[in-house]
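In this section we walk through a basic example: taking a raw amino acid sequence and producing a predicted 3D structure, encoded as discrete structure tokens. The instruction is simple. Fold the sequence below.
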Amino acid sequence: MLNLKTLLTMAVAATTLSIAAPALAEDVKLGILADLTGPIESLAPPIVAGAQLAWDEVNAQGGILGGGKIVPVVGDSACDATAASAAADKLVNTDQVTGIMGAFCTGATIGGANSAAIPGGVVMISPAASAPALTTLADNDLVYRTTPADSLQGVKMADLLLARGVKDVAVTYVNNDYGKGLADVFAATFTAGGGTIAANIAHEDGKADYRAELGNLVGSQNLVILAYASGSGATLLRQAVESGNFTTYVGGDGMVGDDLLTGIDAAAVEGLTATRAGAYAGDSATIYAKLATDAGQDPTATYAPQAYDAAFLLALAVEKNGSAKREGLSAALRDVASAPGEKILPGEWTKAVELIKAGTDIDYEGAGGPLDFDAAGDVPGTIVYLEVEGGKFVEKGAIE
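The resulting token sequence is shown next.
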């Protein structure tokens, strides 16, 4: 039988060991709710790669929460609210992720948020969901985005056309939150500036024939298509070219993809203009561009910089929160994303961790620019325009 002296000796030894032993590193599961299939599937791979680049850097620079690794878990939201609901449910309730980067389409983001993320208390940061509907979502401060809302893109698109002397347009938009939200803002701004909307018609995605819709759009030779490059956008553009009824083509960010120009005579769409969120012109953008290039990625890929920012912010928020728990992550996210604080640029994970451990406030400035979230989780941003030259999209600059 152990006597009292022996028990006391063992207790002291155990206490000493517990003080000396370092805490076990904690791995963190983070979800990627990605529209890998569906109408923007051609845009999805570089967006996913942008997020993965951020987490690869975290893991390479000592890891998270004392040396743990970020473990990504991917779900396919298919740019569809129903598919996103199922994928988000798996991420939240089966995979038990701490936070989610995604989704990319607004409908998928709202679907995943309402069905799983909000009830589960899980923070979501979308790099690409741009419809105004996300601003008014009752989300318990859990849903954010790192791209500007279409309330800005629609205004800038209209401003660009008016500045070019375009007086009338016909508009067709995919019948969802993204298409309608962007079309409404564009039409209001364009008409307020003196332009005329000859037709403004919704269409359903996934059809093989849009000739009937195009027949109702011939009131103007200037056609605005607000749809997806891998979906109705490509079909509409191809059939519009075949009709010969239009001379000028304009699209939103969903149209910027290689699939859009497949099977179309490049000369017929030379000069096609599209708008999208642009890269920030600052040190953070330059640093990200080098990181992406060194990793074999295209730093100008649509929404790849915003995906990098969303993923890096999630990691910073987890580190700030001090655990892989979901509780408190939203407040931590706002802390690391906004002033005041010492600036953290893309790739500066080690520096960020040291500052957080020292109790110093940090302020992440991302590849897409400052990320000071407003009350709705929205950020300011820059809208750029691209033109098709020689069968490829070429970025031309910011829309002032």
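Looking at the output, two observations stand out. The chain is about 40% helix and 20% strand. The longest helix spans residues 304-321. In the next section we compare this with other chains.
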